[in-house]
Structures are given as C-alpha cells and as structure tokens.
Design brief:
Helix content: under 10%
Structural class: mainly beta
Shape: globular
Strand content: 35-45%
Radius of gyration: 15 Å
Largest sheet: 4 strands, antiparallel
Number of strands: 11
Order of helices and strands: EEEEEEEEEEE
Distance between the termini: 21 Å
Length: 140
C-alpha cells in the first residue's frame, strides 16, 4: 500500500477542469460544522474538490483536492473537524490545523460512508458490504 499524504499548494492555486457542454451540475453536498464556523461544499462539476468556507469572515478557508471523487463528508459533532471518504481504504480528516490521512487496516474495505459517535471520539466506517468501528487516537 502506498503512503498517502497531502501536498500543500501556495495561493493562488489553479484548479484544472474540462467542462462539458450541456446542463451544468451544481452543489450536491453542503454541511455546517456544529459550531457554525465552517461550511463545506462540493460542486458536482468538480467532484474531487471540497470547499471549506469560514462563515464569520465570509471567505474561503480551504480547498481540498482528492485523487478520487468525494463520496461523503461528516463533521465531528464536538470539534470543528471534518471526516471525508472517497470509496478507498482511507479516511481523511480536516481541521483548521491541517489535513491527515488514516489508513483502514482491513483488506478490501473501501470507505463509502461514515458516521461519528456523539462524543466525537470514534466513528463507524461503511463499505458496500460491511462496516467497522474506527477508534481515533486523541491527537488525531
């Protein structure tokens, strides 16, 4: 398994996209952080890109570009931390301090959806046929 990492780009950054003629697609994912400080969005024209907005300042905070289309996102119910899955063997976590990748140690388990527990310490990861529990280290 290859080691996964995020590459941080300097601003301004360019997003490359070839647009097709026809009916434009729109935003299909929108989610507020529990503290209402952040709003994340995903536009179907760029399914690999997640936009995180800082709402008190009315500005774009972060753009996360994944190699695969983003399937599901869910905010930690306690902390301003976002979990992202792309139907592969990893989950991705974003907070204002940066991004991290968490490998799922199970063979042939591709995370397509996830749900945090109410205290924000653990989550359930789901693939097409099964699920597992993810216990995060307190420093994650």
């Amino acid at each position: 398994q290859n080691k996964t990492r995020y590459v941080i780009s300097e601003l301004p950054a360019a997003l490359k996209k070839k647009f097709k003629l026809g009916k434009p697609k729109g935003v299909s994912m929108v989610s507020w952080s529990p503290c209402s400080t952040y709003l994340c969005t995903r536009n179907d024209e760029l399914p690999n890109v997640l936009w995180i907005w800082e709402t008190p300042k009315l500005r774009l905070c972060t753009i996360i570009t994944q190699l695969e289309p983003i399937r599901h996102v869910e905010w930690d119910p306690v902390n301003p931390r976002l979990a992202i899955c792309t139907n592969n063997c990893r989950i991705y976590l974003w907070s204002k301090d940066g991004c991290s990748c968490v490998d799922v140690p199970s063979v042939n388990f591709n995370v397509s959806k996830l749900h945090w527990n109410p205290n924000g310490e653990n989550m359930v990861l789901m693939d097409a046929k099964s699920f597992c529990c993810c216990y995060l280290h307190p420093d994650t």
